[in-house]
Write a structure and sequence with these properties.
Strand order of the largest sheet: 1-3-2
Number of helices: 21
Structural class: mainly alpha
Helix content: 55-70%
Distance between the termini: 73 Å
Largest sheet: 3 strands, antiparallel
Number of strands: 3
Strand content: under 5%
Order of helices and strands: HHHHHHHHHHHHHHHHHHHEHHEE
Length: 455
C-alpha cells in the first residue's frame, strides 16, 4: 500500500492527474508484476477502511490537507479499489472466471469517483482518474458479457475493446456501463467552473468512450445524441484544437464513421482525413482503422483508389481492398463481383459492404473508358489536331460489358445497355447523351467525356 499512498500524496502536491490515475489502475506495471497481489495482501476486509484512512489522511504530508468531505471521498475510492483488486485476483486465480463480479466491484470504484466529483470537490486536474475508471469499466463489462455468453473463462487479450465492429447478443453489463459512462459525460458537460479548472477538458475522452460503447452495442443512433449535446454546449467549451491530440483523433474518427454510415460521404471524408493527418505516425493500428472507412469514402467522393505503397504497412487492408481495387482499375466487372462476394462477411462486419458495392459503377466507367480509348481518333481536317472519336455505337459498349462481365453467351439487349449508360450519365461518370434513333452515344469533346480521368 505504501507505494499507492506515496504516489497519491505526490500527485496531489504537484497536481499531476496522470500520476494520480496510476494509483487506481487495475493492471500491474511490467516492472512490478506482483503489485496488485502485494497491495491486496497488505490489508483485510476488517481493517481496509482504517488502513486507507490512515495512509491518506492521518499519515499525509503536512503540506497536504483535505476538507472532510474530500478526504472521506478519497477513502471511499481506494476502499472500493482494494475490493475490486480482490475480485480481479480471485477471477484470475479461479478455474472458472467470473468477470461479472469484477465488473460490479469496478463499478463501485467508478461510482465513488463520480460521487467525489459531484459532492466532495475533486478537482479537474484529477480527471485522468475518471478516464481510467471509465475505460476499465467498459473492458470489464465486455469481458463479463462474453463470460456470460460462453460460460468459459477468457483471457484479458481475447477482447479488443477499441473495435468499432458491433456485437450481437445480450450485453447486459455493457449497457449498464454505457449508463455509468454517460453519467461521467454529464458530469463533465454540466460543469460551470472557469475553463482553466473545468471538467469540460474531459469531454472528448468521455465522448470517445461512449462512442466505442455504443458501437459495440450496435446503438450508433445514441452517438448522435452525444454529438447534439456537444454542439449545444460548443460556445461554453474550449476549442477542439486545445484538447489533447489523441482525444481529437479518436473523436474525428468516430464522427467520420457516423457520417459515413449516414452516407454523408463528403463530411465523413473531411473528418476521417483530419484524423489520418493528426494520427501519430507510428500508430499503425489506428491508421488502419481510419483507412478502413476513408478508402471507401474516397472511392465515392473522388473516385480514387489507394496506391500499393499506401497499403504496404497494412496487410489486412491489402486483403480487404487489394483485389477490389485491381478489378476497378481494369474495369473487370466479373472480378469485382467475385472479390465482393469473397470479402462479403468482412465487409458487412465493417459496415462498408453497401458503399463498396457502389464501386462497381467506377469499374464500369473504367471499362467504358477503354472502349472510348480503343475507338481511336477521327480524321483530322484542315491540318487541325486529331480528336478522339466521340460517337460510339451502343453495340460496342454492350460487347465490352458482356466481356467484362464474362457473360459472352448471354444476350444483352440494347435497352439494358442504354439503361446502364443513362445511369452513368446521370451520376456524372460519363458526359454525353444517347441518340437512340441512331443507336449511338455522343460523348463530350475536349477531354471531358469521362470526368476526372483526363479523357
Amino acid at each position: 500500500m505504501d507505494i499507492v499512498f506515496r504516489d497519491f500524496q505526490q500527485a496531489h502536491l504537484i497536481g499531476s492527474g496522470p500520476l494520480l490515475s496510476t494509483t487506481i489502475i487495475p493492471v500491474a506495471p511490467p516492472n512490478d508484476p506482483r503489485r496488485l497481489h502485494n497491495l491486496f495482501s497488505t490489508s483485510s476486509s476488517f481493517s481496509i477502511q482504517q488502513d486507507i484512512r490512515f495512509g491518506i489522511l492521518s499519515h499525509a504530508n503536512t503540506e497536504l490537507r483535505f476538507s472532510k468531505p474530500e478526504g472521506n471521498a478519497w477513502v471511499d475510492v481506494y476502499v472500493a479499489y482494494w475490493k475490486a483488486i480482490g475480485e480481479l485476483i480471485a477471477t484470475e486465480d479461479a478455474s472458472k472466471a467470473d468477470w461479472g463480479k469484477v465488473y460490479e466491484a469496478w463499478k463501485e470504484v467508478t461510482n465513488a469517483l463520480i460521487k467525489g466529483y459531484s459532492n466532495a470537490g475533486f478537482q479537474a486536474w484529477a480527471l485522468p482518474c475518471l478516464y481510467v475508471a471509465g475505460r476499465y469499466l467498459r473492458i470489464f463489462a465486455i469481458k463479463a458479457d462474453e463470460n456470460t455468453k460462453s460460460n468459459d473463462g477468457i483471457t484479458f487479450s481475447a477482447v479488443n475493446p477499441d473495435d468499432v465492429v458491433g456485437d450481437i447478443g445480450k450485453n447486459e453489463k455493457l449497457e449498464d456501463a454505457a449508463r455509468v459512462i454517460n453519467r461521467i459525460f454529464n458530469l463533465c458537460i454540466s460543469d460551470r467552473a472557469p475553463l482553466e479548472e473545468s471538467r469540460k477538458w474531459g469531454l472528448y475522452y468521455t465522448t470517445n468512450l461512449l462512442f466505442k460503447t455504443y458501437f459495440k452495442l450496435n446503438s450508433i443512433g445514441l452517438s448522435k445524441n452525444i454529438l447534439r449535446a456537444l454542439q449545444a454546449s460548443k460556445t461554453d467549451m474550449p476549442p477542439i484544437e486545445a484538447f489533447p491530440k489523441s482525444h481529437v483523433v479518436t473523436f474525428k474518427y468516430y464522427v467520420g464513421v457516423i457520417l459515413f454510415l449516414d452516407e454523408s460521404y463528403v463530411k465523413a471524408e473531411e473528418n476521417l482525413t483530419d484524423a489520418w493527418t493528426m494520427c501519430h505516425r507510428d500508430a499503425n493500428r489506428n491508421k488502419e482503422l481510419i483507412l478502413t472507412y476513408l478508402i471507401p469514402c474516397r472511392l465515392l467522393t473522388t473516385h480514387t483508389l489507394p496506391t500499393t505503397r499506401l497499403l504496404v504497412p497494412y496487410p489486412r487492408l491489402q486483403t480487404l481492398f487489394g483485389g477490389l481495387g485491381s478489378c476497378i482499375r481494369r474495369g473487370d466487372l466479373a472480378g469485382f463481383d467475385a472479390a465482393l462476394v469473397a470479402g462479403e462477411d468482412e465487409f458487412v462486419k465493417r459496415r462498408i459492404y453497401l458503399t463498396l458495392e457502389r464501386g462497381r459503377d467506377i469499374a464500369l466507367r473504367n471499362l467504358l473508358r477503354k472502349v472510348f480509348l480503343a475507338g481511336g481518333f477521327e480524321e483530322a481536317k484542315d491540318g487541325t489536331a486529331p480528336i478522339r472519336r466521340t460517337r460510339i455505337p451502343v453495340s460496342e459498349f454492350g460487347a465490352a460489358i458482356r466481356l467484362g462481365s464474362k457473360t459472352q453467351n448471354e444476350r444483352l439487349e440494347n435497352d439494358e445497355v442504354e439503361c446502364l449508360l443513362a445511369n452513368m450519365i446521370y451520376k456524372n461518370l460519363i458526359k454525353g447523351y444517347i441518340a437512340r434513333e441512331r443507336g449511338i452515344v455522343v460523348l463530350s469533346k475536349g477531354g471531358s467525356a469521362f470526368p476526372g480521368t483526363g479523357v
